[in-house]
């Protein structure tokens, strides 16, 4: 009977065959321990010399790292294993014997590992990170479908910049100029006027020449837009969504979090409601903490966000940023029109902003003024203005960066480990 490492728990006491790769091994004169992996997990196979034929034991002792195998044996309980079971191996059928596998159990430099990313993904910790990423994606679809959102796929090739910046990848679209999308927001706003609540999940691109541990050139965004939702309503959706994702990972990725030595007590605290602090109060707090380098009207850097997040030990919303440092489409704050109805959600433990969101301008005349102030090509935004001409309503939305969220929840230091094949300023390979 063929099975997988993940499903082997359903076959205790039975003889099964598993297709696997040899992750590692150790042996003595009379016993060999094979660390097997098959994509669903990692499991130990025990080969006892007195219980197998001579050829099988010789294969177990001599087989090389990352060789592919069919391993047949009996699944037995083992309380010392993280899985709670292992295999008593009866036979080994070698599919392909690997030689000189580049990533050995010794330590390797980061650049070497990134050059061999296609192989580094096989390691136990990288496997755990990708499983957590997968669970975040699964929980994302679950949350949005259960709360009545419709999935809409915005285009990747666009004629304009959603946030009006120059940090775009330019390409030719036949005889027109086009850009790789930096956000699907404007298209989702159009979809929200048709379907009420919508979300998207797709790649976005920023031609930002940054080398920090928080930045990628290509990353994945989960974006939501909601008609008839004001700013406060949107914040509630955001904190419910993040809480749902964190609790889903805690429930379904216990082993992966253990492999990564993640302090789950910090994640267990993540429950609604999240603390909130205005931009004005954040500036005041930072100055009290000795940050003399920040003035009102400036955006926060990594050290500022970390200081604010550490004060709360939870994800925290920083609300109502100055108008001049935010994109053109954000609704003015009626209590102070030098600021807008927006919020950034800052993750704990120094991982920075994971969500940016706002209420969107719904007044046609004001939006036209803002487009002109930002010196944007009005013709490119005609469809966006139409949304205010024909049945405009209050509406809000947000975007969550997947890779930063994976880094925070899994506890890894750099976002390059949270994408299968990360694109960095100096890296387009593999």
Provide structural commentary:
- The protein is an alpha+beta fold.
- It has 2 domains: 2-96, Nucleic acid-binding proteins (OB fold (Dihydrolipoamide Acetyltransferase, E2P)), CATH 2.40.50.140; 117-417, Bira Bifunctional Protein, Domain 2 (BirA Bifunctional Protein, domain 2, 2-Layer Sandwich), CATH 3.30.930.10.
- The protein contains 13 helices and 19 strands.
- It is elongated and about 85 Å long.
- The chain starts with a strand and ends in a 20-residue tail after the last helix.
Second CATH tier, the architecture of the largest domain: 2-Layer Sandwich
Q: How many structural domains can be distinguished in the coordinates? A: 2
Strand order of the largest sheet: 7-11-12-19-18-17-14-13
Please give the radius of gyration in angstroms.
26 Å
Mean pLDDT: 96
CATH topology of the largest domain: BirA Bifunctional Protein, domain 2
Sheet bearing the most strands, described? Answer: 8 strands, mixed
Helix percentage range: 25-40%
Which percent band covers the strand fraction? 25-35%
Note the overall shape. elongated
The span between the termini is 37 Å
Question: What structural class do the secondary elements suggest?
Answer: alpha+beta
CATH homologous superfamily assignment of the largest domain: Bira Bifunctional Protein, Domain 2
């Amino acid at each position: 009977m063929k099975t997988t490492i993940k499903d082997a728990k359903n076959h205790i006491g039975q003889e099964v065959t598993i297709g696997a790769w040899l992750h590692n091994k150790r042996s003595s004169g009379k016993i060999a321990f094979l660390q097997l992996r098959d994509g669903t997990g990692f499991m130990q196979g025990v080969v006892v010399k007195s219980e197998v034929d001579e050829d099988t034991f010789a294969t177990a002792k001599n087989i090389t790292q990352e060789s592919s195998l069919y391993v047949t044996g009996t699944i037995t309980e083992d309380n010392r294993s993280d899985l709670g079971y292992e295999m008593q191996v009866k036979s080994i059928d070698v599919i392909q014997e690997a030689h000189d596998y580049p990533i050995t159990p010794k330590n390797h430099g980061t650049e070497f590992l990134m050059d061999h990313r296609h192989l580094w993904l096989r390691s136990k910790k990288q496997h755990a990170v990708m499983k957590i990423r997968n669970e975040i994606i699964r929980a994302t679809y679950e949350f949005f479908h259960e709360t009545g959102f419709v999935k809409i796929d915005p285009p990747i090739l666009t004629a304009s910049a959603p946030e009006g910046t120059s940090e775009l990848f330019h390409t030719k679209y036949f005889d027109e100029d086009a850009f790789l999308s930096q956000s699907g927001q404007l298209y989702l706003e159009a979809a929200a006027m048709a379907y009420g609540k919508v979300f998207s999940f797709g790649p976005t691109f920023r031609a930002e020449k940054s080398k920090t541990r928080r930045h990628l050139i290509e990353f994945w965004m989960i974006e939501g837009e909601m008609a008839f939702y004001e700013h406060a309503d949107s914040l509630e959706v955001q904190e419910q969504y993040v809480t749902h994702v964190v609790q889903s990972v805690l429930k379904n990725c216990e082993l992966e979090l253990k492999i990564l030595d993640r302090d789950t007590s910090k994640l267990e605290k993540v429950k609604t409601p999240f603390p909130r602090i205005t931009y004005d109060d954040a500036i005041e707090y930072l100055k009290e903490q000795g940050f003399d380098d920040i003035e009102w009207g400036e955006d926060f850097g990594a050290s500022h966000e970390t200081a604010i997040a550490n004060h709360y030990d939870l994800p925290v919303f920083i609300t109502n940023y100055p108008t001049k440092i935010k994109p053109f489409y954000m609704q003015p704050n009626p209590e102070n029109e030098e600021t807008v109805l927006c919020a950034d959600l800052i993750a704990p433990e120094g991982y920075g902003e994971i969500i940016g969101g706002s209420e969107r301008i719904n007044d046609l005349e004001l939006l036209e003024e803002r487009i002109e102030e930002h010196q944007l090509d009005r013709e490119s935004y005609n469809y966006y203005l139409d949304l205010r001409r024909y049945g405009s309503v209050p509406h809000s939305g947000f975007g969550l960066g997947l890779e930063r969220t994976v880094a925070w929840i899994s506890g890894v230091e750099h976002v390059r480990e949270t994408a299968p094949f990360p694109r960095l300023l100096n890296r387009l390979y593999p």
